[in-house]
Design goal:
single chain, Alpha-D-Glucose-1,6-Bisphosphate, Chain A, domain 3, 6-stranded mixed sheet, 6-stranded antiparallel sheet, globular
Length: 473
């Protein structure tokens, strides 16, 4: 197997997935080797392997290459075609098969990558075989694929899971009896343009009391309208304007592979992912309690609002805090038997969805909660946003540890508690504010997240800390 460019797979294999520049750090030849290594490392010879991709131009070629490599090593690739990332998780969970989706999520058009799952939608990360796949694939890329002696070459067949995915989500949240809602959805030319009509529309299932106003539903991996990254405020502006223009009740924005969802209220203002986490947590606690659970567990990461654990406790649940990152969340979800988990980045995880993240199911919970009462979303969501957040602010700092030490010295005489899970957290003992400084593992950034009971306190603490951090930057 010859290669046209020299590929070093360590450039594209990250801690949780694969992401690279098409033709430079990820090629069809490399993907074929990865497909073979995926089967060998996870012991999938003779088993079905799920293969799908997003709307990026390189995804079909990469899907075919991965299938060739997997079939060569004796697996039976099942080609899912165009899928969102949470469709892969659904398929891996419901069919109990390992699989991959080719996507680079919200990255620009030049990128593509791979998210992998074991049978049952268990994530494949650096701690659970991802780097073993990388190393074996590199060997196959450099030395050529060995002749398979364990089993005959597998067969490749097509499999469509969209209808089953939509029906399963509908079975988890009943939207049929809510009041009519006008919903603007910005798919960002990503996979939400395929999944939204299937789940919320009437293309595959009976219609719901939802009027969907579609924005950028054309599947286009060049992202002609705006980057498919709703975490950046400028990428929400079209949706915010459209919500106001159409007099909509709510706006939803999906990222490129549609595993994250962001919410806009009727005034065009973002509803924080922490508020969404709290809202969904309360609903999932009630549902679990109705099924006989005494104290359902909810997972949240370190830098979600303190409103999340407060809402969980008030609803009779038990909050468990974890580090930032989906592999940590999913691991703790499984360990704790948690019913739901949420992150500040708008990843939402559900026990009933194989502990995996799905933006669509979170959106359905918000629609159900909104549609079961008459209050506008801005008032309804405000119940879950009692604090003022700084948002995440990056400072380019070479000596990150030194910057953190200077901040701690400044607050040494203050009535605060210091925590060291995932960076450094300083929290006022009277509950008036907290902030976290978290170094990036891949960039020269120190990330600041903070929250306070009022705007003046939030801004004062934020300005004080950032001044210290950047004083010797």
């Amino acid at each position: 197997m010859g290669v046209s460019v020299e590929i070093d797979l360590s450039e594209s294999f990250k801690a949780y997935d694969v992401r690279g520049i098409v033709g430079a750090t990820i090629t069809a030849e490399a993907v074929e080797a990865i497909g073979a290594a995926f089967v060998d490392v996870l012991g999938l010879t003779g088993q079905d392997v799920l293969v799908g991709g997003d709307m990026r131009a390189s995804s079909p070629e990469f899907c075919a290459a991965f299938a060739r490599g997997a079939a060569y090593r004796g697996a039976n690739p099942r080609m899912l075609g165009l899928i969102s990332t949470d469709e892969l998780y659904f398929a891996a969970g419901s069919l109990d098969c390992a699989g991959v989706v080719f996507t680079a999520s919200h990255n620009p058009a030049a990128y593509n990558g791979i998210k992998m799952a074991k049978a049952g939608a268990v994530p494949v990360s650096s701690a659970t075989g991802l780097f073993d796949i990388r190393d074996l694939a590199q060997n196959y890329l450099d030395e050529g694929l060995p002749v398979s002696t364990e089993a005959p070459e597998g067969n490749i067949a097509e499999l469509d899971v969209l209808a089953d995915y939509a029906a399963y989500l509908r079975s988890l949240v009943d939207l049929s009896g809510i009041r009519p809602l006008k919903v603007v959805v910005d798919a960002g030319n990503g996979m939400g343009g395929l999944t939204t009509p299937a789940v919320l529309g009437a293309t595959l299932l009976p219609g719901l009391p939802l009027e969907i106003v579609e924005m950028y539903f054309e599947l286009d991996g060049t992202f002609p309208n705006h980057p498919a990254n709703p975490l950046e405020p400028e990428n929400l502006r079209d949706l915010q304007a459209a919500v106001i223009e159409h007099g909509a009740d709510i706006g939803l924005a999906f990222d490129g592979d549609a595993d994250r969802c962001f919410v806009i209220d009727e005034k065009g203002d973002p509803v924080s992912p922490s508020a969404v986490t709290a809202l969904v947590a309360v609903r999932e606690i009630a549902r679990a309690q109705a099924s006989g659970e005494d104290t359902p567990v909810i997972i949240h990461n370190l830098i979600t609002s303190r409103a999340v654990p407060e809402a969980v406790v008030a609803a009779g649940g038990r909050p468990v805090v974890t580090r930032v990152g989906h592999s940590f969340i999913k691991a703790v979800m499984a360990e704790e038997g948690a019913v739901f988990g949420g992150e500040h980045s708008a990843h939402y995880y559900f026990r009933d969805f194989y502990n995996a993240d799905t933006g669509m199911l979170a959106a359905m919970h918000v629609l159900a909660a909104l549609g079961q009462q008459e209050t506008p979303l801005s008032d309804f969501a405000a119940e879950y946003e009692p604090y003022v957040s700084s948002g995440e602010i990056n400072s380019e700092v070479e000596d990150k540890a030194g910057a953190v030490a200077r901040v701690l010295a400044e607050f040494a005489g203050s009535p605060v508690e210091i925590g060291h899970m995932d960076g450094t957290t300083v929290a006022a003992t009277d509950g008036s504010y907290w902030f976290n400084l978290r170094p990036s593992n891949t960039e020269p950034f120190l990330r600041y997240n903070g929250e306070a009971k009022d705007t003046n306190t939030m801004e004062s603490i934020r300005n004080q800390v950032l001044s210290i951090v950047r004083s010797n930057a």
